[in-house]
Structure formats: C-alpha cells, structure tokens
Specification:
The chain is α/β, with parallel strands linked by helices. The protein is built from 3 helices and 7 strands; from the N terminus they run E-H-H-E-E-E-E-H-E-E. The longest helix has 25 residues.
Amino acid sequence: MTKKHYLTEEGLEKVKNELKELIQEKKKKTKDGVPEVLHSEDLNPEYLDFRQDLHLLERRIMKLDEVVKNAEIIKSPENKRKVELGARVIIEADGQEDQFTIVGSLEADPAEGKISNESLVGRKLMGKKVGDKVTAASKVETVYEIKKIEYQDEV
C-alpha cells in the first residue's frame, strides 16, 4: 500500500517545481557527456563523482515523483469544529498562547508554526475540539488546551 502525502496546493506546487528542475538538471548532466572510465587499475575520480551525483539525483527524482503521484490536497473539512489537516489551532500551554497549523509531514516547519499531523503534538490534537485538553510528553509533560480552531477558508 502506498503512503498518501498530504500537501497544501502551494506545497504540491513546490514539489512539482523541484521535480521539474531536477529532471532538467539530470538531462543537462547527461547531455554534457559522461566522464571517461580510465582503463587502468584506478577508476577516474571524475567518473565516480559523476555516477554518485547522478545516483543521488535519480533517487530524489523518484522520491518526488512518488510524492506527486500519491499527493492528496488538504481541504477544509465539513466539520470545522474538530482539528483536522489544514487547521490553525490556537492553544494555551503553561499560561501562554501559541498557534500551530496542522500540515502533512513534508510541509512541517516548526519555526513557521507548521506541525505535522504525524508529530507527537499533531497526533494528539487531531480530532479534538475547542476546550479539549491534550497532554504531550517527551522530556517534559505539557498540557495544551485548544482555544480556537480556524481553517484557511474562514480566515
């Protein structure tokens, strides 16, 4: 069974653009010619570097292609009273308010306030409502109280 990759429309566009750029890079790399393999005991280091770069490029292209083929765009759910993918959740923890947007793992960026639905806190928040409290414990146990849930089409 293939894994679904939950992305915003913008996130999918970024993946498609990166894929397109890498395919162009691969075409250019192979069009410029393959360095010669020396017919001695030693392989040409330039050839080895070329093969390694090409291999890494092909692996990344395959990964991005798999993401595009199995992408599911995050849409606002019908029941906007629960935390689902795409929700901006305003929480209170230790007397301080904070907010997170719940996204798929490929777009998660905690520095931007985007957490994955697969992360510890993201998993705990999924399906919860305003007023619910969830406890997430890693090194320190933190209780998050959901204060507000918003979706992109409501903002």
